[in-house]
Amino acid sequence: MNTVIAAIAVLGILGALFGLILSVASKVFEVKKDPREEAVLSHLAGANCGGCGYPGCAGCAAAIVEGKAPITACAPAGPENAAAIAEIMGMEAPTGERQVAFVRCSGGVNAKKRYDYVGVKDCLSATKIAAGPLECQFGCLGFGSCVAGCQFGAMTIGENGAAVVDPEKCTNCGACMKACPRKLITSVPVSKKVQVTCANQEKGKAAMSVCSVSCIGCGLCEKECKKDAIHVVNGVAVVDSAKCVGCKLCTKVCPRDAITPAATAEEKEKYKAIKKAQAEKAKAAAEAAAKAAEEAKA
Which member of 170, 200, 234, 252 lies 3.0 to 4.6 Å from 138 by CB, making a disulfide possible if both were Cys? Predict the structure, then answer.
């Protein structure tokens, strides 16, 4: 009995001793936490989506406080929270329009297939088998890796079989961009609706042979644009959102409907009629000027 009591007493003393040691150690080796971290964390989205590149929102908050990440690192938090974080950090609030994801492909069922893929419904997995089932090596595979990566319900596979972004739900967190093995998703200002829905860099006939809505790099859009806002780069048209005013002239001359919002057949015919009338008027004016010049010489 005395032995049992002694053992209990010893264990109690050792427990108290170890507790004291741990308490002292916790104080000695305590990692001081910047109080701003909690304040910054309260203004993050709380989704732990990883779009910022850090392990969760806590990791992002720590990186912002340490100066390793910008105050706009958490895209889902939005401009108001970014402004609040800037105030916490003693910095100026960021400016600029909200960005959203945009898929540079509207091929889907319009793109030709080389074979029927029956494997795991994942875009990366599909690319492992002969580089994917599509003839177009730049096209959206439509197996929804971006949909699975989006935690905000902003990505879906549209009726045409290609990925589609809901700009109202998109936070531009970047998760869909990382999930796309073909890097077809980029960021654009939310107000800029005119965009090229193709990333195919092959030349005209080659691009045309693999998809019925591919950009063929003809350059008609580039010639028609009055603001120098669209150019053919590496065989495919690209919109400069900073210059684009949304006039949509490029959409009316695109023979492949590769620029969104695609113009209707009626809109295209009406625009052709306007261009024809302008050309005839210019020709008549030139002829009149030439005739007047000849009469003056006479």
Answer: 200
